[in-house]
Design goal:
By secondary structure, the protein is of the alpha+beta class. The chain has 13 helices and 23 strands.
């Protein structure tokens, strides 16, 4: 390929997911310039960062035009829902991620539920309400626990598992009447509580074509043993051997294929990641939600395992040429352990200096999420999830040993992390 054909690529976002994607861009033979907006200090080690917020749609479009960006990878859901990809495409710029019509599956849980029911895709029974009185009447005859969800985006906080009637009733009132999540909770979905182990299934979709990446498992709760409040994710590993080949075929047949076909049948040309959250119940896999972007921290263990250039896959998906790509995955296992600030997902300190090792091994990565630059080259904590410490190994135990050894070489005052990422899987081995 001649130099002319190399891509100037813009990664939108600033978390661990975007650091992973920017790292893949920097390593891609298809790319000659990588810019992240707004990026973070980890990304800035290898790539340019432009201080434009991920939700500043017109700012990003202007920047992409001015810098002759060829290809944009959109990390988070908010710009997707705000129509960033629509606006980029209108300006002739290729982008990976669905347009607003596709991102609506993440932006509205009731919209997704309707699609799931229409196409007979297994999911929990549910009803939705715009009116708290009707919702409370419904709860009077419901069984508990039950799940109350804000319909719209709520930064991962809009799902409450209510153990009893009173909690469910209070949650509904808070959401609809109290405006707990503003517009996002004017409508609530009340859903049957499903039991089992959760799995993240990521499909790279381009219209009716799709490629399913290996299963991964996130650890949502903040404390060991899956206790405490839900977070954005405290660690993940892939592949998740809970999903064997036969189960993956079932998931494809019952869930992924009808999802992709259903979305296409609704007239939506979806080009991006369809990340399906599944509960593996006694009666089989059931859909908890669709996300329309890569998971964070799942990206850290999915993208690092790809043998095929991730940029080549995403460009092909964006162009509608996904069927031309043969996606190969490495045999190694990957694990990411999130180093968080103690107190997350509630309040936590910021601005603590982080000590980082000078060198790290092959197949080891320290992905930045909530960090900022301080004086004299210092890196400071700046968020709840601070770093995603990632390692690949011949098996899950080796990946875990390497990731945890690397965690031990990183320090900041309020460092907190779960020591049991992958423990359930390892105890099955
Ligand atoms: P969601 O954003 O819909 O995936 O929900 C966030 C988290 O809440 C999920 O990852 C599950 O841990 C939990 N959750 C959501 N829906 C249900 C359900 N119907 N039954 C049990 N847990 C659920
Ligand atoms: N790790 C879950 C998410 O990205 O939504």
């Amino acid at each position: 390929m001649s130099d002319q054909a190399l891509l100037t690529t813009l990664v939108v976002g600033s978390g661990g997911r975007e650091h992973t994607l920017a790292t893949a861009c920097a390593a891609s033979p298809l790319v000659n310039r990588v810019i992240a907006a707004p990026g973070n200090p980890g990304i800035a080690l290898d790539c340019e960062c432009a201080s434009i917020a991920a939700d500043d749609i017109e700012g990003l479009v202007e920047f992409a035009k001015n810098e002759s960006v060829d290809f944009v990878i959109v990390g988070p859901e908010v710009p997707l829902c705000l129509g960033l990809v629509d606006r980029l495409n209108e300006n002739g710029i290729l982008a990976y991620g669905p347009k607003a019509d596709g991102a609506r599956f993440e932006g509205s849980k009731t919209y997704t539920k309707e699609l799931l029911l229409k196409y007979n895709i297994p999911t929990g029974a549910a009803a939705y309400f715009d009116d708290s009185e009707a919702a409370i009447e419904y709860l009077e005859t419901a069984s508990f626990p039950i799940v109350v969800k804000a319909d719209g985006l709520a930064a991962g906080k809009g799902v409450i598992i209510a153990e009893d009637y009173q909690t469910a009733r209070d949650t509904v009132s808070d959401m609809i009447d109290g405006g707990a999540f503003g517009e996002s909770s004017q409508r609530v979905l009340i859903e049957e509580c499903l039991f089992g182990e959760e799995t993240s299934i990521h499909a790279i979709v381009s219209g009716k074509d799709y490629v399913i990446l290996p299963a991964s498992q996130d650890h949502k709760q903040v404390y060991e043993g899956d206790k405490g409040p839900n977070t954005g994710g405290m660690g993940a590993y892939s592949p998740a051997d809970l999903i064997d080949e036969a189960m993956m075929e079932r998931i494809e047949r019952e869930i992924v294929k009808p999802s992709v076909e259903g979305i296409a049948a609704e007239g939506i040309d979806f080009r991006g990641t369809l990340f399906i959250g599944l509960m593996m119940t006694d009666s089989g896999p059931k859909v908890l939600e669709y996300n329309t972007r890569f998971g964070d921290p799942e990206t850290q263990v999915l993208i690092t395992r790809l043998e095929t250039d991730p940029v080549a896959i995403m460009v092909a998906a964006a162009k509608g040429e996904l069927s031309d790509v043969d996606v190969k995955v490495k045999n190694e296992y990957a694990m990411v352990v999130v180093l968080a600030s103690d107190g997350y997902p509630n309040s936590y300190p910021k601005g603590e200096e982080i000590s980082l090792p000078e060198n790290i091994g092959d197949n080891e990565y320290i992905f930045h999420a909530g960090t900022r630059s301080g004086e004299n080259g210092a890196i400071l904590t700046n968020g709840g999830r601070v770093l995603g410490v990632t390692a690949l190994g011949a098996d899950l135990q080796e990946a875990a040993d390497k990731a945890y050894a690397l965690c031990g070489k990183i320090d900041f005052k309020s460092r907190y992390f779960r020591r049991d990422i992958g423990a359930k899987e390892l105890s099955r081995a």
